[in-house]
Amino acid sequence: MPEPEEVVDYASKPSRKDRRYRWQWIAPTDLLWIACITIILVVIVLPHLGRPPSRVIRQHVTEVQIENLAQSLWTFHDDNGRYPTQAEGLDALIHQPPAMPGWHQLLEDLPYDGWGNEIRYEFPGKKNLATFDLRSAGNDGIMGTADDITK
Asked: Count of CB atoms within 10 A of residue 90's CB?
């Protein structure tokens, strides 16, 4: 006849001996691996917390802002038959230029590039001779350097 299985009462408080061996299944090498992985994660993740956005993110934001401005300028051209003059600038997307009855407001505010600088409008453009150029000064904030972003 088989021996009856021992009945374990899980509701009762564990004895002092049971509590002492509770973590016995974790080997010291396992603890070492856990500590190493934790340290590696802290070393990799911690420096990135609280850091301002990277140059790549700011550049992408600038490219999106320039593309949105270009869309607004194309809409302005479709509605009015011309692009804003150099004198009117991007302000023509917000405030009505004189003698333009078909005008309507296309933007609430002018966007800035990823570094907080204004986006420059040039008409006629130097890169796009038939239309316009939109330029950001880029990371250094100085127009005419290698990091400028132009459409």
From this structure: 21
